[in-house]
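Possible race condition, two jobs.
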Amino acid sequence: MPRINEKVSYWMLVLPALTIMVCFYILPVLGIWEIAFTEPETGLGNFVKMAESNAVKTSFVITFRVAAITTVGCLILGYIVAYAISNFASRLTPLMVALVILPFWVSVLIRSFSWIVLLGRSGLVNDALIHAGMIERPLRLMHNELGVLIAMIHVMLPFAVLPMLTNMRGISGIYVQAARSLGASEWTSFRQVYFPQTLPGVLSGALLVFVLSLGFFVTPALLGGGRVLMISEYITYQIQEFLNWGLGSALSVALLVATALVLLISARFVNLRATLLERK
């Protein structure tokens, strides 16, 4: 009886979340798969059209390139921030962590609009550079890939910092001290002793940023101005502008499969369960 009661209690706790997951995620995803294979006619026509389209290929290349560069930028900046918090800001750690988490309390839309104010032709950055005499004409800092990358790195940075910070705070300083006591330089101690221990956090942060960047929509749409057409924006155009539900759904399926492949490949190198727990 006690074991039966435990099972009943377990399913009573799981069923509400499972029901929401099935109704609001799994069923809509299955609906997208159905549309991809049935609209406007049953078969693989949408996928053939997608494979033959140069615009789709270009959009996928842009998507993976922007996601990769965003990931690299977030890892470099995030590693510096996480290292500084975990090693040099002991008294200020709560404040620094709060500053890292603070962007989560602000809408992505608002943060993206703030970059429009900063990077526009009459924005704060161009005005400051002109007044300083560094440039004569405003620089083109948005409606191109540069503006999209700057804004996306800013939006995605906390997702890189938090896993690396969690990993770094669990590393004992004894190992580095032992290396220094044996005659290793500060750089050698960092490179050969400290950095290898931070790789799980680095890989976790890279996975989170890259996967989230693949399907990002708001920031590329606003900062790209239609010139940096990532696959999520291309899907929106197909469905909203051209009412081409079949091709739009096929593109969604392709993006979902690509993301799943990235996760499967990454699972060989990264503990995905630990990554999700660190994110929470």
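Job #2 (started ~2 s after job #1):
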Amino acid sequence: MKATRPAWEEKPTIGGQALKGTSIVVIALLILFPLYTIALTSLSSGETVNRVGGLVIWPGDGVTFSAYEQMFRNPVVLRSLVVSLAVTAVGTVISVVVSILGAYSLSRPGSFGHKSILFSVLLMFVIFPGLIPVYLWVSAIGLRDNYLAIILPMAVSAFNVVVLRAFFMSIPQELFDSARIDGAGEFRVLWQIVTPLSKAVIAVVTLFYAVGYWNNWFNAFLYLDDTSKWPLALVLRTYVVESAPLPQASGLQDAPPTLAVKMAIVMVAIIPALIIYPFVQKHFKKGVIIGAVKG
């Protein structure tokens, strides 16, 4: 009797391949078309934007960088860009280091408070302290109007710690035993054995944290009263989403239309993620899926 194979192991039909290809093309267009219109509007002249009356779909009177020139001459946008870069860099380093240390300790059986701490981490998936307790905690320790107020509340993600822990547990125990026979301590084992073998999952977790800090505007909205400390994400929300007037930069004879400047701010906000994702994408399957399944 001929054994039957599951449907997902069968060779795809021509119709199935055509449907899959069409679906991929449609999804790609749905993703790329908004990016195309945003980029084209930010590069369009005032006449083109005024003639269209909204987002530009077809190039008109040529390409101009006047919107980007005004944006980078504007102290509000330029300062917020520097703040976002600094907060993202510092916050990502803190989050990755703390997550690696926590995940490694939770992956070692018999470590101090292993079960209770692991239970607390897993409990964070279903129970979150809420906005008011976190706000009161930040205010009580004097972090209002401080950059640490937008870093510490999101410094550790329970999901990232669990993913790192699962990957660390998949490393053969023989490597740990041989390192300890050679006299290596826990920090040396972590630095010279665990970290090199976990580059894929660390790269993915680093990306998760970096994108989270880069796009985070809500904590800045709550805790930063000084507008000069606002990150780019909050400036983007204020001047683009809420349509607040953006201060005009000096030195430009023909100021670009407001819509073009807004779209230029949007492009600057999304370009870093577009640049980083292709370099980290190859690690996603190995870093997250395999580690999570093995855990």
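The chain has 14 helices and no strands.
Logs attached separately.
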